[in-house]
What does this fold into?
Amino acid sequence: MNIALLLEMAAEAAPDRIALVCEGKRWTYADLLAAARGAFAVIQDSGAEYVALLDESSEAAVIAVFGAALAGVPYCPLNYRLPDADLAALLGRIAPALVIGDEERVMRIAGNQGHTILAREEFTLKSQETVPADDAREYDPGEGVAIQLFTSGTTAAPKAAILRHSNLLGYILGTVEFAGADEADAALVVVPPYHIAGISALLSSIYAQRRIVMLPAFSPEGWLALVEGEAVTNAFVVPTMLARIIEAMEKGTSADTASLRAIAYGGGKMPLEVIHKALERFPAAGFTNAYGLTETSSTVALLGPDDHREALASDDPNIRARLTSLGKPIPTVEIEIRGENGEVLPTGEPGEIYVRGEQVSGEYKEKSALDAEGWFPTRDAGYMDADGYLFLSGRADDVIVRGGENMSPGEIEDVLLTHPAVADACACAIPSVEWGEAVGVAIVTRAGHDVPPEHELKDLVRSRLRSSRVPEKVAFVSELPYNEMGKLLRRKVKDVLAL
Amino acid sequence: MEGQRRDRLSAHPNKTHAREDKEPEMKPGTRLKSAACDTEVMVIRAADGQIECGGAPMGEAKPADPAPLAADFSAGTLMGKRYVDTDGKYELLCVKPGKGSLAVDGQALVVKDAKPLPASD
It folds into this structure.
């Protein structure tokens, strides 16, 4: 099995249909397949063992992912935001590679590692011009690696997560209907190419034959202009992007967004306020919250459009709470919540989220993290309610253990966010002589409000949760640290609270 | 593809002819062609039964003389549909449509119910 099949089928069924729009240039499925075949020959000739991309999204990302698949070489998009030293170390781990993108930088930081380096335009042009020998096409034996992605590695060296062709095809064939999109459908892709959501967006849109509209660098104005200009119907955003889009609209940026039928989001916790505003701003759009990890080939649980509207309209607090959930496991995977000793926990009990399914690789280059029965421990903490909705409380490593009692930061934050003067909140463990760990919180005061008195926040937590959850330390900060994907960097908050 | 096809053919010269022995288990990813129509499938899962299309055995190469399309197996295949048996032992992805319909040892395969999800990425 080979993920190149996805593009081959699209090109077979609809060769002349527009597959991709990037910076005004239009590519048909036949164009992309021809270039991917050319890239295959370029990759083979280079003798590279990996194909790396050090660049923003462009047609080169699409050509490279399928070209690498045809050549049977892992595709490894790299985070161009990393500092030179970190990036050089990652490049060293995949040498010799064909590196596409920032030629000058790769030469400077990894010029002696034996890589073949091609600037974006050079790679694209060469791929278009090269025609592989007719019988050079080879299929993967089935268990080959399609994608290698380095994890962000905040505490140790980044791990190399690998996704096999069989994982990715399992995901696409199991969740996407071939040619299921209307000819007018268009998906706006703005997630960086080194993120799993950026890769799965390409694969699923191509298999569905949904035109990909790429926005290489996000800005709310650019996003809105592209939605109008290309009559975009589907879009995936991370929460911070959605917040910035709404902010821009509130400040007067206007665009015709009537074509938007589906907005999916994921990659970080969505503030309730943002999703409420979004539901109002885009009344015709269906919202989907997607939960997934690199190691699971993207989405494993989702909260669909009907769930969103039902939760918004309901008076039942349990149904309203679904807006903060990850939704339900998709039909092609299984999810369990397990305790510290690996035992399966009953409904409602918080523990670690485990996932199993064809799309779940759970594998690193160094070793597989799957257990003997194929379950992947996500290191995400959460629980499932009686109706089967999955709730995320944070990373398992973020759980606060106070005197042997496990507390998730999320439940404390959710309570704090109900205070009118609190715009954002982060709870994390602080050292405690008495308890080992105790609760510390960092609070961002809402604009136009006075800083709320500490005792008010403590009383609020005490009135809603057990007294053990009451923060021992409260710090007021101007903003919380998020990464470019909207993930809260709790370690940085911990550092502030430890002062 | 061509290169691989030739390799396989030279290793199994009688592959596309009716044989007395069962085929070895098909490897996932193997592409099979119909002898009776244009249908092509990719094997997702298979056991050691005979995979057929339009009433004739499928093979990695097309025979020089096309087989007749059996009336009982002429409902056609649809591109991108997955076809399965009732026991879940076989799953074939149609990568090129045709007039024949798919079967294993004479038992018709059925379209696997797609569970399209809201686009999530």
Observations:
- The radius of gyration of chain A is 23 Å.
- The CA atoms of residues 410 and 442 of chain A lie 13 Å apart.
- The first helix of chain A runs from residue 4 to 13.
